[in-house]
Amino acid sequence: MIDKIKELIAEADAFKAETKEEVEAFRIQYLGKKGLLNQYFAEFKNVANEQKKEFGQAVNALKKAAEEKVNALKEELESKEEVKGVYGDLSRPGEPVNLGARHPISIVKNQIIDIFSNIGFNVSEGPEIEDDWHNFTALNLPEYHPARDMQDTFFIQTNPDVLLRTHTSSVQVRYMEKNQPPIRTISPGRVYRNEAISARSHCFFHQIEGLYIDKEVSFADLKQTLQYFTTQLFGKSKIRLRPSYFPFTEPSAEIDVYWGLETESDYRITKGTGWLEIGGCGMVDPNVLENCNIDSKEYSGFAFGVGIDRIAMLLHQINDIRLLSENDVRFLEQFKSAL
Ligand code: DAH
């Protein structure tokens, strides 16, 4: 009987299977309730005492061989199935690829970049974590200048020299420090202000800064450039430059676009005036040029800054600025066609 068991062990070791069913049949034959092993275990009591030890060892070896075989075959078949799952039927038509949508801020930012690159502006960027010099001092806003309060600043912990930039005008400074005129650059980016969050304002938003420095640049050049920009972006070319104050420009102005009052929503957008403010601008203050090692006697230039979020909200009828940073797919998916 022991020889028979040894034969069965050899058979189990040599057993091969192609399907799960074959493995299961093998398992039942050896390890099932009425299987070979249980038959041998039942036989145990009839075995002569002096053979019990050898018999027991042989039956245990058979059990081990059968169990190991079942496990090994199962694993082998499963991994074959996995491979099949990965590659599938290679002749099947492809799965549709679900394309994402660009974020409305990116869409509008890219539109603005396109408009300005058509008239020779390049794109420059600067860090969101800034130092006092680039965000304030070089822009003609020395310490204790009251205009610093125009923008509530987030400082990084205890160091008053490290802050989250409050505007992209800081990139003007960085660009002028590294490049000599002629300069034509726009600088898109995220900015931060310590403001209460509501449907109309957020503690972070996006701006595009523009800078043009060359010989004999005039206010007329500024106006013409802005007019071109608003016509391209909104299809509305009537603009108004309303006198204002910024420490880094002199003279300074607020940029208004004539939006019109044709519909109910025009009334809301322009608060009944027909005019919509989109940003600030002016002739770069000679102090700023000098701070950046540009000779203010030889060169002059203009700068402007516009808010991207506001423009995106206008162009895509978004009524709450918070939607732009909440990452709700139901909102984002609506921009699939607007690439
Ligand atoms: N930095 C200003 C702000 O964030 C916007 C601005 C105004 C930028 C006038 C300019 C400028 O370049 O000339 O409110």
Automatic annotation (TrEMBL):
GO terms for biological process: phenylalanyl-tRNA aminoacylation. Residues 108-334 form the Aminoacyl-transfer RNA synthetases class-II family profile domain. Its cofactor is Mg(2+). Residues 48-83 form a coiled coil. Binds 2 magnesium ions per tetramer. Mg(2+) binds at E250. GO terms for molecular function: ATP binding; magnesium ion binding; phenylalanine-tRNA ligase activity; tRNA binding. Its EC number is 6.1.1.20. Keywords: Aminoacyl-tRNA synthetase, ATP-binding, Coiled coil, Cytoplasm, Ligase, Magnesium, Metal-binding, Nucleotide-binding, Protein biosynthesis. It is found in: Cytoplasm. Signal peptide: none annotated. It is an enzyme of class 6 (ligase). One of its GO terms (cellular component) is cytoplasm. It catalyses: tRNA(Phe) + L-phenylalanine + ATP = L-phenylalanyl-tRNA(Phe) + AMP + diphosphate + H(+). Tetramer of two alpha and two beta subunits. Belongs to the class-II aminoacyl-tRNA synthetase family. Phe-tRNA synthetase alpha subunit type 1 subfamily. This is Phenylalanine--tRNA ligase alpha subunit. It comes from Aestuariibaculum suncheonense.
